[in-house]
Amino acid sequence: MPFVIMASRAPPLLLLLIVLSLVVLAALLAAAAADASAVAGGGRSSPSTTTFVLAGERTRRKDPLDGLRLYSGGWNISDEHYWASVGFTAAPVFAAAAIWFVVFGVSLFLAGCCFCCCPGSRRRGGGSYSCTALVVSLVLLLAFTAAAAVGCGVLYDGQGRFDGSTAATVEYVAGKSGDAVASLRGFASSMEAAKAAGVGPVSLPASVKGSIDGVVRKMSSAADELAAHTASNAAKIRDALETIRKILIVVAATMLILAVLGLAFSICGMESLVYVLVFLGWILVAATLLLCVTFLLLHNVVGDTCAAMGEWVQRPQARTALDDILPCVDTAAAADALARSKDVTHHLVTVLNGVIANVSNAAADGLPPPLYYNQSGPPVPLLCSPGERCAPGEVDLAAAPRAWRERVCRTTRAAAAAPEVCATVGRLTPAMYAQMVAAASACDALSRYGPVLADMADCAFVRRAFRVVGDEHCPGLGRHSAEVYRGLLAVAVAALASVVLWVAHSRERRRRRDAVELRAAASPYTVHHSHLEEGALLKSPRMMYR
Ligand SMILES: *[C@@H]1O[C@H](CO)[C@@H](O)[C@H](O)[C@H]1NC(C)=O
Ligand SMILES: *[C@@H]1O[C@H](CO)[C@@H](O)[C@H](O)[C@H]1NC(C)=O
Ligand SMILES: *[C@@H]1O[C@H](CO)[C@@H](O)[C@H](O)[C@H]1NC(C)=O
């Protein structure tokens, strides 16, 4: 019975997996924020002094580790009292599973002993049976088999929906994490582009280039780490969900088959087969109840986590248990990240404006040959500083390539080795134009990534993701985990009742059979047992004639 072994071992493993998945789900989002802060390199700013208890109302439960007093610490997965109080909510179902396993197991054992040691006692039915008991047990058996079938249907439907909603949540979170990775990589590559940018021999100062190297290295390793974490965690969660899905489907199918077979065997009076099924049913009911415990816990933890996420989103300032796993309130790091990208942007804009003002727009006749290339015509517009209003005659980074294109000249060379000079009106050679556009677009990208990075560092990004998870995914997760729980409970209870009724109904049937046989043996007119009848007939005349 490989399944039985698997199912009875599954719950603790499953619980572990589920708890892990939840933590991992939160950690996935946390990783993005943590990496961003790490990249920005700032120390964590000291948390504000007010501590807010997340999901305080929901998590006020009896805590067995604290003498059953009400737990008041709120959602805090680092706190064993939280886990104890959540675990305690499943205590009744767990107790039911334990009682069933022990009590029914002992009765099964005793019945087995009786059956083996004193086989004769089985036959001593006393010849009396109750027709009412037979009918009532049959009706109840039919009702509970139907209930088990309905429970299996609910369970199957619930697992499908649960699987859909968890998969969607994981995809959403993994997608957000992917966005974060893309932002980090994009920022790093813009930094590298900015470092390489320059016009002719003019480029960024060496000190700025050095700081870019450091940022790029941190950023790339953070992006790689986050991408690897996301991929491996998402794969683990998908595997766990797939396992849960398979277990639930197998449970639904097995219990349905068990209920139908048990009904059929006990109606047909195949007592030995019924007892085999009773043994199977004993273990399967206990396993289903344990699975039920797992899903009740999962349902409660998911509900708490969703409530905690919702409250955390609304209170960015307070210190909460989520901040322990999400290093968020880190405005210094965010400011530092922004400052570095602004610094690089500023330097690059200065370099470009220097070239435009002192070379392209210069009066051509006063310049020595490398700076003189027969530039003429209207001046090239200068760049305005990013984030500031452009003065007349200036262009912003996004509009610069188009504005500069109008100032490009066609070039010729006097000799093969000679530098290019403008042959037509214009102030930029095509080569200069390409370099300036590359630099401007690196700046433009940096100024666009800056806010994204700040957004990640101060967790605004995670808060938005949590809000979407809370609004769009949590209701489904809660509903569907509850549906699976209810389906499992219905299946377990109906199967439990059915197992007991199989025994009761088979006994009533045997009693009736025994009673019929006994009556047949007692009655002289029965056609069966003709040898008895003959004996009686043969004896009586002799007695009469004597
Ligand atoms: C969460 O629990 C841990 C362990 O008991 C504790 O150190 C921490 O302060 C708790 N966090 C909050 C916000 O209560
Ligand atoms: C042009 O060059 C001079 C020195 O040669 C410098 O002082 C000035 O700042 C430069 N202009 C720009 C816009 O960089
Ligand atoms: C320099 O540019 C002018 C147009 O402004 C053009 O007529 C002239 O031929 C160019 N000189 C050379 C050497 O190409």
UniProtKB/TrEMBL annotation:
TM stretches of this protein: 93-117, 129-156, 247-267, 274-298, 484-504
Keyword Signal: yes
GO annotations of cellular component type: plasma membrane; plasmodesma
Signal peptide: 1-26
Source taxon at top rank: Eukaryota
InterPro entries membership: DDB_G0292058-like
Isomerase listed as a keyword: no
PANTHER family: PLASMA MEMBRANE FUSION PROTEIN, TRANSMEMBRANE PROTEIN DDB_G0292058
Keywords recorded for this protein, A-Z: Membrane, Signal, Transmembrane, Transmembrane helix
Record's protein name: Uncharacterized protein
